[in-house]
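Internal tracking record. Fields below are filled automatically when a chain is submitted to the structure queue. Please do not edit lines marked as system-generated. If the sequence contains nonstandard residues, flag them in the REMARKS field before resubmitting.
Queue: standard
Priority: normal
Entity type: single polypeptide chain
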Amino acid sequence: MKSSVSARFNADLLEEQYALWCADARSVDPTWAAFFEGFELGVAQLRPRGEAAAAPAPAAAPAAAPVEAPPSEGQLAFYGKVVSLVYNFRALGHTQAHINPLSGPERNPRLAPSQFGFTEEDMDKEASNPLFREGAKMKLRDMLGALEATYSGFIGFEFTHINNTTVRHWVRQQIEAHALRAEDPADRKARALGWLIEADSFENFLGKKFLGEKRFSLEGGEGAMVFLNAILEKCPSEGVLEIEMGMAHRGRLNVLANFVRKSLTTILYEFTPNYMPDLVAGDGDVKYHLGYESVRELPDGKVRVSLAANPSHLEAVNAVVEGKARARQRLIGDDGVKTDRKRVLPILLHGDAAFAGQGSVAEVLNLSQLPGYRTGGTIHLIINNQIGFTTMPADARSSAYATDVAKMIEAPILHVNGEVPMELYWAAQFALEFRQKFGRDVVIDMYCYRRQGHNETDQAAFTQPHIYKHIQERETIGQIYKKQLVGQGVLSQEEADKIEKDIWDRFEAGHAKMVEMQASGDRSVFSGSTAVEQEDYNHAPVPTGISRDLLQHVGKVLTTVPESFNLHPTLAKRFIPRRQEALQNGGPVDWAFAESLAWGALLTEGHQVRLSGQDCRRGTFSQRHAVFYDSESRARYIPLEHVSPTQAKFCVYNSFLSEFAVLGFDYGYSIGAPNMLTLWEAQFGDFSNGAQVIIDQFIASAESKWQTPTDLVLLLPHGYEGMGPEHSSARLERFLQLCAGKNMIVGNFTTPAQYFHALRRQKMRSFRKPLVLMTPKSLLTRPEAVSTEADFLEGSCFQEVLPDPVHHEDPMQVTRIVFCSGKVYYDLAAYRQEHNITDTAILRIEQLYPFHDELVAALVAQYPGASKFVWCQEEPLNMGSWSYIFPRLEKALDRRVRYAGRTRASSPAAGSKARSYAEQKALIEAAFKVV
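SYSTEM-GENERATED OUTPUT FOLLOWS
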């Protein structure tokens, strides 16, 4: 870049840059290009860009118009300075906008007229710009005032980073129309006052009735309620039927009570010291983590509003809300075929420190336009308290704004003063219109403050004494706005007081009702609970086998491609023929084929299937090929989309390189679409630790905390093949440590048929549980790890423990029983056969949790001579299943159980293939010799 447009203009430089632009627009800096784009529109007399074709002369040519002289060098320079002025106000006007209610705006010297070379004599010159107020002519001093009012008022606009010209111009037009809009109607102002007083009074009421109780109040940020209600008002006219919301704990109770409309009596009862929730199951959660949903009745229609439950992990819920929203969009799509993403609106509320600091924010923003994850745009509201717990912005981020991360997806960003209600109202409606028009995210950064400390027991003045002295002296926004409206004559003092009194009386009535119900033991206060009641987990076998006709039909579909399709030679010569032979010969069926057969059968039975993850279309190990690609055109063909004319929807998506956001999204999807089999696959099992927050805070515990069940399936490649630490272990021990109260199913299977039945069982049971699977790597192609056709047919089902397939003629001769799970079984079986060992039986614990102790005891009883019991695993002693399994086995057997496996280690696996093989050989031998 030779010079910045914001620098003082020089006529020679302007001419030089303009000439370059005329020759090739890409040869100059983008700021110059934007400048000349407007220049061309407004100065028709300037020389054309390239040679223009001459228009044909009319039959009777009219009198020639007088030829105007081309602009002089001085006029050209003045016009250039005007264009630069407008451009810079658009780009930098936000830096001097009055967005902080705690301080006045600071002038940006880069926007001073002198910076552009203007003198006092220029102020009365006529100025215009085609991209500002449609080229209206005005004096330069009037233009400066108009630019100030438009771009440096109570909203600071950031939109020049948007590269899409159509989007950028639309935003600009809305901004400039906003500056010229008529006075807001009195009834709108009155409604805004009601929302503010309601939010303010709610916090005051709780503070007086429950002194010292944590509530993470919205005080200082009550303007958020104007923003949310303004969106809600406009939803019916914009075609929005549902809102899916997510937020952290600050202000949640206020939003639950005054926006989602959770029962006030219930919320108040949750504050009482003897509160004991009516839980379906589990332990519950603190009141400021809970979710709720309701249907809001509006004059123009109904809108379902759902606020997702969220743990203390800030921003963790974002991806969950997006997944749930996409699921709801599919469920209510037009005629069941076309998905109309305009009908379900995701709204996410953030804190400023968390939005800038939490990496999950960037991950979720990156989801916004991806084919398998887009939700038609999300409205983000940042409740910018200008502090994070006790940390000031200067210590919390390296960027100028908390919102800068959103520029990567070219979202328009509006920084709004949180104490100017009508600006918040307009920003809300702008955000919804933008989202509905362009299907993209938009960010509203509401500058406000936090009246209390981090919570109501925290003393904020310890670390910010001057700021909090100033805050404590300020009236609330509700009272400030009330005085404004009375002073403007919008409301009388009596009318304003009545609004406040009516709200307070409603709170008092709710409290009196709560006290009365508590005294009488009336529990109907929980009648509005959104908890999902489930029957208890049981080990009853579930018939998941299918007819031979269905298996053959699905198998044929999976092995057929259109005649004109150019399938890759390897797939055409090996992959497809191998599956065709298995169908003809009754097997062998490998792991990936069994998986596709399970999905195909579910699809024909009306169950939708969704799989997402890194490279899952092909499969990390080239095993799946759920999508075929034409070798010449790369056109896609997905066999599972052609199982039946009436089949359910099949979706398979390669995710972007994320675990946290994608697993959170798919978890949310499983919540929003309970009839769909939703699966997430890690590229390697250990990569799932990048999503540990989602696993810990949602998948493992959501049913206990929030009574929100899911049957999401996690596919985690696992097995020790000498490929190093991260490519060996899925950290099985971590999942087993999370198991309690029948909260999820953890399995490590050994046969394709077991996998087939487990997937189908997820949709055949009358209760829902997450399924965490240690899926294989080498077993995908190991000749022994296959199943026959009979293993899939009617009458077959999943077996939580597999008996020894070797028939022992005299069970009394079996003195040793080796228990194992997963891939190590095949190494054990090979060693036993190679060494002709006849006194050892091998039992496979396919489902580790919930542990079926009765079945284990029954299988062991078949070997009355057994006196030695061993657990064999590939993982180190302090990992894998050992710590979990040995007390359960010992209790079921009433015998001591020995260990055969790797020694303790801090890393999951050796980095050397040779060392790994030596360790594997030793642990297999130990299984047959340890005493």
